[in-house]
Amino acid sequence: MSQARPKLIVFDLSHFCEKARWALDWHGIAYSEISWAPGLHRVLLKRYGANGSTLPVLLDDETIVQGSSAIIDWAENRAQASTLSLNPQTKDLAEAQAIERRADEVIGVHVRRLAYAELLSNYPHVAKRELFPPTSSWQGRIGRMMWPAIRRIMMRAYDIRPGAASESRSRLESELDWIDSKLSDRRSYLVGDRFSRVDVTVASLLAPFARPKERYHESTPDAIAADVARWSDRPVMRWVSTQYRDHRPPFHVYQ
User: What is the pTM of this model?
Assistant: First the structure.
């Protein structure tokens, strides 16, 4: 077993990165977190031999683990016996996998698209400020210098065009209805009777609009404040806050 801490490469704002971070913290795995600037991360990923442009990425010696779900798998294998597994304890594993996949492929995608559609289109100065400060000084300097090009690349990558915010908002409304229907029987967890990776996935991917105090200490950005207020009384948003309160361990990050 490696004596060096694994490195978690993230976009600081990313809810998918929060999903991976939560799993590592749940299992008490100490790691060094490194924030990369969008755009520049593609070059850096190639240097490490990672495929594509997806973050988060976990680096553990020669091992590269890419994607939040794969990092949860890695954390499960690395976990000490004293920590509870995040694997769902249910007879219907197909349902658990389907919920996690839908959360990744629909909820997470449209949360990101809605947030960026508002930020990049209407509040680009806020997006610039939020995206670059956590990065290393040289990345910050290059990122700010290249910001007009990076903004265009991000808008193209996330399909940000006229009407994008309304489209993603409508799609999210349907997804929130779906999760609300599952919670209508007052269950504590989405599958089974124990907290699992399904709950980690849905809670972390909806956190940017649920704004649990354990994750978000600053005021809500104007870009998404209306949506946060609109959805705040939904059962699923209250459920997200409960999951953070009851099951989100303190960060085990070592810079």
Answer: 0.92
Mean of pLDDT over the chain: 91
Report how far residue 227's alpha carbon sits from residue 222's, in angstroms, rounded to the nearest whole number.
Answer: 10
Quick: pLDDT tens for 136-176.
678 888 888 899 999 999 999 999 999 999 999 999 999 99
Compute the C-alpha angle 125/147/137, nearest 5°: 95
**Residue 172 and residue 86: Cα distance in Å, rounded?**
26
CA distances from 192 to 91, 94, 95, 188, 197 (A): 8, 12, 10, 9, 11
Q: What is the pLDDT of residue 74?
A: 97
> Which fold does the domain 7-78 belong to in CATH?
Glutaredoxin (3.40.30)
CA 229 to chain centre: 20
DSSP state of 64: E
**Residue 177: partners with Cβ closer than 8 Å, 6 or more residues away:** none
User: Which string of DSSP letters, residue by residue, matches 133-187?
Assistant: TTS-HHHHHHHHHTHHHHHHHHHHHTT--TTHHHHHHHHHHHHHHHHHHHHTT--
Reference 244, options 203, 187, 188; nearest CA is 203
Decide if 128 contacts 231 (C-beta within 8 A). Answer: no
> pLDDT digit string (tens) for 211-252?
999 988 888 888 899 999 999 999 999 999 999 999 998 865
Q: Which fold has domain 93-247?
A: Glutathione S-transferase Yfyf (Class Pi); Chain A, domain 2 (1.20.1050)
